[in-house]
Amino acid sequence: MILGLTLPGERRERGKGATAAQAGATARAARDERAAAAGRPSGPPAPGAPAASASAPASAAVPARLAAAAPAAVQAKADELGQIPVLMYHRIMVKPQLSLDRSTKELYDELTRLAKGGYVPITAAQFVKGWIDVPAGKHPVVLTFDDSTPGHFGLDPQGNPRPDTAVGVIEQVARENPGFRPAATFYLNKDLFGMDGVQAGAGLKWLAQHGYEIANHTMSHPDLSHLSKDEVYKEIGGMEDEIVKATGTHTTTFAYPFGVAPHKAAWAEKKDGSYAFQGIFLAGWRPSMSPFDAKFDRWAIDRVRSEGKIKEDDCKQYCSTAWLDYLDKHPDERYTSDGDPNTVTFPNMLEDRLGKPYRAWARVY
């Protein structure tokens, strides 16, 4: 599978064909990654749910006219149909060794930039459920870490996150920037942060208890497009079993290794009695659409690689620094919260982009 690519400014449409640059960038990212190797609150229905869902009130029939936005949402210039950066990280190290690695300082600097820029982290599960509880005028961001490597998380002898890990950096930035929520999603493989069984169990419980999402990334990180149905089930179901055994709960989201789907995407979405995801993430090159956008596809959610504006892999345009710069310069294209997770507020000119299940919760100005 070749991932869709959107150039800065082309926020709406997926490309109908992959460009040569995109194909090359995707191939290089896959190469480098190999080397590095449901209840929900009241509010809008989860993306993909039918319009008359169990969570919808009796008045959820499509209204003739959308309700007016709250004055505070108008003042905040809310646009909950805007783009949301879903940032993709791999190894976090003091001294990076491979092109997908990021240093602890680079992570600290990027998270501090996000905090100063009004971004508030949410988990991938909250994102796909459409439960985006962010203060008015702020912008959601999803931090995702693939492969459960030792630089992502570890506990010191006192039971606190080690400061040289991703979680340690996230917690530090949150302490230094009130309002920056310490939240992220960790896509796990069998080797859980380099911990042994007892440590891993304690570590996963710590993460879950402190607002971090535990998610599935297969047992051994294979290219799923090369596997049979039973092999796909074994890879994903085996990892799900490991997580449930350690935490007692099933996962909500999944990320394709290398961003590549199996021969039939449905194999990865659900297996009766084993796993049933609500959203699947790619390894792409652009921010995600809002989950309330009519064209949002919860089975192919875009992510952005964390990287500076370097020449390699077209990062001058398509990696995190470039996209954050772009959204800073084009704030009208960025998701800005109305402060109420039970409503979906946006300028009335964007009404045609709203997914039909959300009309009852829509507010316009």
Descriptive account of the structure:
The protein is 28% helix and 13% strand. The model is unreliable at 1-29, 31-41 and 50-60 (pLDDT under 50). The radius of gyration is 20 Å and the shape is globular. It is an alpha/beta fold. Helix 3 packs parallel to helix 5 (166-176). The longest helix is centred in the middle third of the chain and has 19 residues, at 229-247. A hairpin with a 3-residue loop joins strand 10 (270-271) and strand 11. Strands 2, 5, 6, 7, 8 and 13 form a six-stranded parallel beta sheet that branches. The protein has a three-stranded parallel beta sheet with strand order 1-15-14, with no helix packed on it. It folds into two domains: 66-82 and 336-365, no CATH class; 83-333, Alpha-Beta Barrel (TIM Barrel), CATH 3.20.20.370.
Biggest sheet features? 6 strands, parallel
Determine the N-to-C terminus distance. 40 Å
Quaternary structure: single chain
Structural class comes to alpha/beta
- Tally the structural domains: 2
Percent helix: 25-40%
Low-confidence stretches: 1-29, 31-41, 50-60
N-to-C SSE string, H for helix and E for strand: HEHEEEHEHEHEHEHEHEEEEHHEE
Return the CATH class of the largest domain.
Alpha Beta
- CATH level 3 topology of the largest domain: TIM Barrel
